[in-house]
Sigma factor-binding protein Crl (Vibrio metschnikovii), 129 residues
Amino acid sequence: MSEAAKYPTHYRLLSTLKAIGPYLREGQCQEGIYWFDCLAFCINDKKSPEKREFWGWWMELTTTETGFEANYRIGRYNLAGQWEESKPTAAALPEVIRTQEDFHKKLAQTLQQRFELSLSLHQQSTEFA
């Protein structure tokens, strides 16, 4: 494995991670730490967009010696634009799980194919299933 494939630059990683989907919060990323979130389920879509809250997940991706480690959390994205860790309603949970699983598969596949790097879960990561 070449050094370029094993250790991509921060900007090359940002470009690759952005291509996976709309989940990367580029402004909250720094070298070695990448932040993602997903607003998977609108809590009340009858409210105006600026007054809506969502169920979803967020994740911090950090570099390790062999690749990356993902630490997922699940909860509510509130009106203040902050995540609160909590369990979604029974109606929302399947969509939160589906979006997280789909994203995790894409992320693992992309890191392996593009850079030959592994993806593991942090020991404190939320279990979705």
In short: The longest strand covers residues 67-77. The helical segments are 3-6, 10-20, 93-115.
